[in-house]
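Subject: Sanity check before I submit

Could someone independently write out the structure tokens for this chain? I want to compare against mine line by line before I put it in a report. The sequence has 354 residues.
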Amino acid sequence: MRGVRGHAAGDVRLDEIAEPGQPGPGQAVVEVGCCGICGSDVSEVDHGPQLIRATAHPLTGAAPPLVLGHEFSGRVVAVGEGGPPLAPGTRVTVDPCWRCGTCFACVRGDYHLCRHGGAVGLASDGAFAARVLVPAEGLIPLPDAVDDCLGALTEPLAVALHALDRAGLQAGETLLIAGFGPIGAAVLLLARSLGAGQVIVSEPVAARRERARALGATLAVDPTADDLREAVRGATGGVGADRVVECSGRPQVIPEALQTLRRGGRMAVASVVLEDATVPLGHLVLFERELVGTLGYRHDLPRVVALVAAGLLDPAPLVTSVVSLDEAPATLLALARGERGDDLKIIVDVKGSA
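---
Independent answer below. Compare away.
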């Protein structure tokens, strides 16, 4: 079969690769239907390896080059010993977190913080291929109301849901989203579903600000032209935002967004910022603000599936393009070059590819 593998920075190829074979204990094989392109996939193509280890992963034994892709849906092919009793052909989305199950974090239920963990597509071959080996405990059945394309959006929506949990959003509160890429857009949709009050978006790209307004943002601010702090304070009667979720990936945004918080507010950093950011501690201490990190998700994908199935969340507006597996390498390279800036979520139709 064929798979899209990242070999080095700027080098991504559609290679002939081996089938995953029969799953071992605690594993499953899924036939991929659709797989979303994530910012981490683009980062691996642009700068990699970053989250992919240069040597064999201690939990999976997989070593680069690896097939990318971890936001996906498909059908169960086989489930190994100890996995859930799902029949072949069952439609699923997948929590792609590999976890050891025995470390301090795993025992507490925080498997996303496993000291040995990783994700499908970063710690093992991913879903930009016809079939993929996954952790069996990550299999989540999809109801008929959630099609394959929407099922592939479950993972990024779970990232957004976990970020809102970490930010502590309550119904009626004002939320600032700093950066309106795919995760920022997912945060907006979920915040609306969860009953947020005002949702303000900070985004320098005009087309994305327009899309934010179309998706229900109360206010969309260009932080390069307007004073973000003053814009937020003006929209909140001088109080400030109750919560902030940072999704820009730019370290300089963190201190700027922090100043928009009200006294006692909380900000969650959702983007994987690998550079240092300078945060004036007085902005935290003197106003008793909180700054927290948010990583992935823990038991959040089933919650997202339930929201979509119940009609409380419509993720369809996130999808702005669908490409074939053959088109995926060029699409990843274009994204790494900063092109296709108007797109939010690009889905790779793996099953429909030749």
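---
OP: Matches mine. For the report I'm noting this point. Residues 154-167 form the longest helix (14 residues).
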